[in-house]
Amino acid sequence: KTEKLNYPVCIYKTGEEEYTALLLECTHKGCELHPSGDYLICPCHGSEFTNKGIVQNPPAEENLRTFLITTDHENIYIQL
Ligand code: FES
Question: Distance from the CA of 23 to the CA of which of 9, 16, 47, 49 falls in 20 to 30 A?
Fold first, then answer.
């Protein structure tokens, strides 16, 4: 969490040196998403997103907001 954003950011490791950072704000009506394995599920109306932020199930139509990530083999930096 950060004061700059109204929702937490979720980080997934998707490969040896690959990560995704996603804002947990549903693009349908703004409920906070719940991570569930490799998916993010909206408790309000059931939208689902992949761990890369891609919509899998409506009613949401837009993908999640993502953030650029860089690493130096010890730390992960998220550009907000
Ligand atoms: Fe997430 Fe409606 S607010 S599906």
Answer: 16
